[in-house]
Amino acid sequence: MSDKRTITLTVNGTTREADVEPRRLLSDVLREDLGLTGTHVGCEHGVCGACTVLIDDKPARACLTYAVQMEGHEITTIEAVGEETLSPLQQALHEEHGLQCGFCTPGIVMTFEAFLREMPDPSEAQVRDVLSGNLCRCTGYQNIVVAVLKAAAVMREKRP
Amino acid sequence: MKPASFDYHRPQTVEDALGLLARFGETAKPIAGGQSLGPMLNMRLARPRHLVDLNDLVELDFVRVVDGVLELGAMTRHQRVATSAEVRRAHPLLAAAAATIGHYPIRQRGTLGGSLVHADPAAQMPLIAVLANARIVIGGVGGMREIAACDFFQSVMTVDLRAGEIVTSVRFPVLAPNAGWGFRLFSRRHGDFAMVAVAATLALADDGRVADLKVAVGGVASVPFRIDLDASVFAGATPTASWIEEISAHVAERIAPEDNALVPAEYRRELTEALVRDGIKDALRNTQVEAA
């Protein structure tokens, strides 16, 4: 009843195919079938935020999404961010020591790449509210907040 | 943390979705945003043989105001409920409560209908639906029906929805423009499920006296419920600090939370009292008529 089927996904602007059972998580298909291991897997029930990717430019948990649902949608993963040089957000995280072990970082980057597009001039309280969806056990969050606010300022300056 | 096998269906119309659900009966489960059902599937607390994906039903993603009623499609995402100018105008309490659901990425996917059907006793949308006297519109192959929110919620994660039915929209009476509102919740970690959540609306008469007060509480019983406020306790009162104390004590007396391993009943009761107090203060602050 739940045989493998061939699905076509658009990931980072490229069309990819995978043979998967319907129950297969998007996070597993990205990592294991498509080799995109930048998306990390932590809790697998939507709590930790490590697997956050963009679905049609909006952040979502890849572990609460079945890959089969994503046909016809655009997936963006961390591999598409800062391909040649670091993005302003990645650069700010680097400069402000916004990461240590780096396990949670891809999820945080994907969340805030989307958030800063929607909210280019956020308050610290708004950044903290959004950051509450990503667990980080190294940094204590303070430097991530500083980095996101710095990235927002840099991105606003770069705007024409 | 991988779900059991299921067969996947992706209907393109409400009619097709209802047809599939009728055909598979109890062995099917509709999936909307998947932010509550996803974890249940991954942990195998739910093992449907058929998953019917409602995400292509764009006709169930809408916000409209007609004749004093704010109607939202069941597939409207929390983020849209929280940020839509139309919702913020017609029912600012609903928008404010939606902005506190889970976390930012969760709100991008989670839906109003999904939250109501999931019926977590402490969840925001069921609480506001009950407070606001919302009506739940339900579709099935036999036709549509409508039910009051307070009758829809039956017990913990149990609602008046038969196999083959889905919620299609929710109708909220528009909040009176002169009404103030308050929404308060407490959770140990920002974005977690509330331990207790309280919502209140308050309208004052021209002379500054209380004309109407509604309070609902979530997280203290198997379903969210409105407190039956005896008119003699509040009607015509001047909303002073001692009146607020009286109302919050009154509400705390009318709930019967149960002890559990993590939260003693008495703590939940005190929490409720404090949240009602703060919620009514918020409501007073944002009523358009200045408080006496």
UniProtKB/TrEMBL annotation, chain A:
Family annotation (PROSITE patterns): 2FE2S_FER_1, 2FE2S_FER_2
Keyword Transcription regulation appears in the UniProt entry: no
Q: Which residues form the 2Fe-2S ferredoxin-type domain?
A: 5-81
Q: Which CDD domains match?
A: fer2 (cd00207)
Does the entry feature the keyword Oxidoreductase, yes or no?
A: yes
Q: Which UniProt keywords apply?
A: 2Fe-2S, Iron, Iron-sulfur, Metal-binding, Oxidoreductase
InterPro entries the UniProt entry points to = 2Fe-2S-bd, 2Fe-2S-bd_dom_sf, 2Fe-2S_ferredoxin-like_sf, 2Fe-2S_ferredoxin-type, 2Fe2S_fd_BS, Beta-grasp_dom_sf, Diverse_Oxidoreductases
Q: What is the designated name of this protein?
A: (2Fe-2S)-binding protein
Species for this entry: Roseibium salinum
TrEMBL record, chain B:
Which SMART domains is this protein grouped with? CO_deh_flav_C
Signal peptide range equals none
- Matching InterPro entries: CO_DH_flav_C, CO_DH_flav_C_dom_sf, Diverse_Substr_Oxidored, FAD-bd_PCMH, FAD-bd_PCMH-like_sf, FAD-bd_PCMH_sub1, FAD-bd_PCMH_sub2, Mopterin_DH_FAD-bd
Domain of life, per lineage:
Bacteria
Q: Which SUPFAM superfamilies match?
A: CO dehydrogenase flavoprotein C-terminal domain-like (SSF55447), FAD-binding/transporter-associated domain-like (SSF56176)
Q: Which residues form the FAD-binding PCMH-type domain?
A: 1-177
Return the Pfam families for the record: CO_deh_flav_C, FAD_binding_5
Q: Which of UniProt's keywords are assigned here?
A: FAD, Flavoprotein, Oxidoreductase
Q: What is this protein called?
A: FAD binding domain-containing protein
